[in-house]
Amino acid sequence: MPSSTPPASYASLPFKDIAVTHVPADSPTATKVLIVAFDRPQKFNAVNENLLNELETVYNLVDADPRVRAIVLTGNGKAFCAGADLEVGFAGLMAHKKSEEAMRSYRDQGGRVALAITRCSAPTIVALNGPAAGFGLTITLPATIRVAYSGAKIALPFSRRGLTLESCSAFFLPRLIGLSNAMHIATTGSAYLASDPLVSRLFSALLPTPQETVAHAVKLATDIAANTSPTSTKLMRDMLLYCPDTVEKTHVLDSRLFLDVLGGRDNMEGVKSFMEKRRPEFGGKVVVDGGVWPWWDVRTGEEGGREKAKI
């Protein structure tokens, strides 16, 4: 497995169950946009423990790599992701039930990936190019943008397998499609077309073919990587996700954050490039002048977790 140091080339990393491609694909070094694909097409990209480990690894690498500005997440073959590989099953998780202490300390591995996507400095654009079920759908929810092949079938079949929601999806799903629709699809466990009104709000665009879906996602990612400030996009993602619970508290927060970035490198470059009618050259790292970010409780329950910041 790769070290924690960003590699010269992501395409050369020894991953087994995911594939990472540069944009353009023939670039010998890391590019501003990466395509990360589930790569078990013979299994419809069903998830095993190694695939989850590899996903978490690549997101942690990208988070520390200022060269990468956006990730497109998709699946190789005909499916996006069929969910957990039921032929492997969940026997490995039973060890966590040996004691109450072990159960309290257990953290769902899909949730670890969801948090890695959420925390990553580079936004994720999902290209849902085919069927997605269970984890295959829940892992799309922390992404910044989702686009889908309109004919793709998606499902949360947990109620039909005697399981419950995972990968932090109970947090994201009602915020994205509303509580009523979230309750409906979670309770029925049925499959729906991506274009169905119950679930279509998940997607900012529905495309006529899988190929056009991936191409559209790459186009979005390329535009974001070339024209937006990593600091601005990360802060605004966090503002929307961790918004305070009243308009007055939100006013305090957005007032402070606006001042924190005002006059900063990216702000100055954004204004200058606009006036000079050229493409901006933003810095690659998220830089915040001031101590307000992060303003939410970022403790993980593990040793070394940071305390809640104060606004």
TrEMBL record:
Residues in the signal sequence: none
Pfam families: ECH_1
Organism domain of life: Eukaryota
InterPro entries: ClpP/crotonase-like_dom_sf, ECH/Chromodomain_protein, Enoyl-CoA_hydra/iso, Enoyl-CoA_hydra_C
CDD domains on file: crotonase-like
Similarity remark: Belongs to the enoyl-CoA hydratase/isomerase family.
Name of this chain's protein: ClpP/crotonase-like domain-containing protein
Source species of the chain: Bombardia bombarda
